[in-house]
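Tokens for chain A. Residues wanted.
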């Protein structure tokens, strides 16, 4: 039975005097991402507060989940969240730069909500800039990590703004990888998708499965599809 551990509306972390809230988009990624069967090892790249690692530990009872985090404050926050969770025995946080990290055993699933916005205005707060910009961890860095650490039958889940995802898609296809499925996230009924979660892999898949998820209806209420997806994780709607 799933344990409704997450109370996202009250889950924030103070980092360098800047409250960094858990994003709805990341919650969607953690709930929607396909987990291959069997999956014994999962890696969350740039875990932040540990949200995605916690969600996947909840969803996949047999998997060991490792979370990488380069920021020391976030590393300690994620480690604390892991230790307080019902899945602490299967969760570990590693203070490391993913660009310099290698593993002896290849991974079944890698999940990443990477730095956004390659050429946009930067925050004066260094930690928020690191979390939101890809200067320090580019899409090419991410692909190199996946290529080195993902096993041949494994999959990778990546969440990006729609504009950035075009760059990611071009990079993945150029490297002769394939997309298995994509989730287009619309913030409100009638609006265009602003985020995309995609599952890519080394092995050929046809056809690509594309799904659209709208978070709120025209009146601003959560849609039925969103509620059904998030029900195992949200305590309140």
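Reply:
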């Amino acid at each position: 039975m799933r344990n409704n551990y997450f109370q996202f509306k009250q889950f924030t972390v103070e980092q360098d005097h800047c409250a960094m809230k858990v994003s709805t988009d990341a919650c969607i990624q953690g709930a929607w991402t396909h987990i291959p069967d069997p999956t014994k090892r999962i890696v969350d790249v740039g875990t932040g507060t540990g949200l995605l690692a916690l969600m996947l530990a909840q969803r996949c009872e047999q998997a060991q989940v490792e979370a990488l985090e380069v920021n020391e404050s976030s590393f300690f926050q994620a480690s604390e969240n892991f230790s307080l969770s019902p899945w602490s025995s299967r969760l570990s946080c590693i203070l490391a730069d993913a660009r310099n990290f290698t593993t002896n055993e290849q991974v079944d699933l890698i999940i990443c909500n990477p730095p956004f916005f390659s050429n946009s205005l930067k925050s004066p707060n260094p930690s928020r800039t690191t979390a939101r910009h890809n200067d320090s961890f580019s899409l090419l860095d991410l692909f190199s990590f996946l290529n080195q650490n993902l096993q041949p039958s494994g999959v990778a889940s990546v969440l990006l703004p729609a504009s950035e995802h075009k760059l990611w898609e071009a990079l993945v296809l150029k490297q002769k990888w394939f997309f298995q499925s994509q989730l287009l996230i619309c913030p409100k009924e009638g609006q265009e998708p602003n985020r995309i979660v995609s599952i890519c892999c080394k092995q050929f898949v046809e056809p690509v499965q594309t799904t659209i998820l709208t978070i709120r209806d025209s009146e601003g209420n959560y849609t039925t599809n969103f509620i059904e997806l998030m029900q195992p994780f949200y305590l309140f709607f």
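The radius of gyration is 17 Å. The longest strand covers residues 150-161.
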